[in-house]
Amino acid sequence: QVQLAESGGGLVQAGGSLRLSCAASGRTFRNYAMGWFRQAPGKERGFVSGISWSSSSIYYSDSVKGRFTISRGNAKNTVYLQMNSLKPEDTAVYYCAADLSTSEIVSANPREYGYWGQGTQVTVSS
Question: Mean pLDDT by 10-residue block, N- to C-terminus, for the chain (126 residues)?
Answer without folding.
Answer: 93 98 84 95 96 96 98 88 98 96 93 96 97
